[in-house]
Amino acid sequence: MGLGEAIYFLTFGKFIPVTTGLAKMFSTVEANITHTSTISKVYSPDVHWIIIGALLGAWLVGRLEGESRNWVKYSPGMLLVAFLGGIIFGFGTRLGPGCTTHHIFGGLAVMSVASWTIAVLGLPFAFLAFELVARLGYGPYFKHQETRSVCQTCRNAGLDDDHRLVLDEKYNPWKSWLRMGAWSIVAVVIVSSLYTGFFGASGQALGSGPLWPNIIRLIAGACLGFGIAKAGVGTECGLMAPESLLVPESHYRKLNIPVVTQRMFQALLPVSGVLAAILVLNIAVLVMWLGFGWPVPNAAPKPQGWGLHIGHLLAAPCLAIGSVFMIGCEIRTYGRVGLGYLTGIVGLIGFYFGYLPYVYFQGAIDGFIANHTFLRATNIPELLTSDPVGQKVVGVAYTVLLASLFVLVVVQGAKRIGASPVEYLTVNTDDLVLRNIDAIPVSAPVRARTGRPGRLRESPSRPADADAAHANAAARSSTAVGRTEPERGPTTMAPRTVAPAAMAEADAQRARAGRGAGESH
Predict the structure, then answer these.
(1) H-helix or E-strand spanning residue 245
(2) Cβ atoms of residues 53 and 218 within 8 Å
(3) Which of 334, 506, 517, 519 is the residue whose CA sits 20 to 30 A from 343?
(4) Considering 358, 382, 406, which residue would you say is the last residue of a domain?
């Protein structure tokens, strides 16, 4: 992700834009197919090679892994939440302006005052949205990635919330009218954009100028899409992970948050991914600024001359809520679309409707923002000092702080998950989280668990209490009559016997919940 940002910056002198490009891609449908003029009144029809590259990069991840995510089953309710998230997020990008990719991966790298404001103000709204979606019964959907073999392993290990809503061998995605309808809409947008790119006369059309800038855009987008799809990290989880350490484990269990997600947050894995991407671009910006006199890119170009305005304050909750509802920010949504996640597909469609208020009321919205501005400084060095030398000192200190924070996160995160720093940086997230689960082979029938859903292997590098969520979830889902369920103590896990009647009632409730969560076919 950071490499893609750096390539784009070194070529064009700014970081990657995406959300306006999507609006222009929507506009091509009006120009090529419907011959109407709604969104095209504000956004001229054009292809956006960065987005095309991101989709291709994510698609390549699926091909290399030998698995798309079309098999992942989502309930109609969760899809509605994702669609609403796309609307809310899309509108927020018009107020910012820019998405969380713009402000987190790009803005924090260039020390933007507006981007830091959006990141901090959005956090409480992200947690509120997280709580709301989980209380609606969709907590098990909050995962960085769905991989079939991992879901099967979790099922055999008794980790119910890590598989029960998404894994259904009877589900045929190609017979789902929701999936096929949503895919068709997105396919029309992509094909229409490519038609404009190959045969049109727009700014990024192949016949409108030199070929190499579009190749760079495509490569940068592919790097971004490949990285975001493979890592499964998003801006929202990267910002939420540190604060989640203050939330009791019992609360996440009550919300049915997957064990993988709980431990991923506890180990600060999303933070390390986001920081790595930010740091790569930040170093590129610092080198070109100090060594070659390049200006620091501005993350808040509108209205000109102002670094912070009311649009940023209003955008923060929209971007935070929308990201959580979609299970991903904008660039992560492109990654999820390329992999085949249906929530990403319907979220992308929602963006169109989120753009419409700005299309219809552009003058009023821009005027309101222009009349409510707060700071002229666009970045932290400008905010702290007007002396050019002092600004560069602040810039160096900022980079050192980012690098130190990254090292601290890696070291502490590795300790929290019982791994070495090298393993933390090189081993797959699911492998790190589930490494101490001794599950029955995937091929074995679930009913043949012999009363043991899975076993947590003891590890000298991690305390027994660190696996409380695993053991608790495994015991809850065991099929053995009179199974034992762990009860948390200060430092140990004491078993208590669950009565067969209570166990049967709990299993019945889970079965009813599973039937109610199915996606319409």
Answers:
(1) none
(2) yes
(3) 506
(4) 382
Beta bridge partners of residue 487, listed in sequence order: 494
Helix or strand (DSSP H, E) at 515? helix 500-516
Q: How many domains does the chain have?
A: 2
Out of 382, 400, 416, a domain closes at: 382
Phi/psi for 438 (5° steps) reads -100, 90
- Mind giving me the DSSP string for 281-298? HHHHHHHHHHHH-PPPPP
Query: Per residue in 426-459, is it b (16+ CB within 10 Å) or e — as a string?
Result: eeebbebbbbbbebbeeeeeeeebeebbbbbeee
Q: Is 126 helix (H, G, I), strand (E, B) or coil?
A: helix
| Same domain membership, residue 204 and residue 76 | yes
How far apart, in whole angstroms, are the C-alpha atoms of residue 395 and residue 160?
A: 47
Contacts (Cβ under 8 Å, ≥6 apart) of 360: none
Is 132 within a domain? Answer: yes
The tens digit of pLDDT for each residue in 34-52 reads 999 999 999 999 999 999 9
Angle between helices 259-266 and 148-157 (to 10 degrees): 100
Contact 208, 47 (CB under 8 A): no
For residue 415, the tally of other CB atoms under 10 A from its CB is: 15
pLDDT digits (tens, 9 = 90+) for 124-136: 999 999 999 999 9
- The reply to whether 82 falls in a domain is yes
Question: Which residues does 462 contact at the CB level (< 8 Å), separation at least 6?
Answer: 417, 418, 436
Q: What does the alpha-carbon distance between residue 167 and residue 107 come to, in Å, rounded to a whole number?
A: 37
Range of the domain at 453: 448-516
Residue 481's SS3 state is coil
Residue with tokens 């001794």: 438
CA 417 to chain centroid: 21
pTM > 0.70: yes or no: yes
Residue 182, token pair as written in the block? 């949503």
Q: Cα(first)–Cα(last) distance of the chain, in Å?
A: 36
Token digits of residue 93: 């990008």
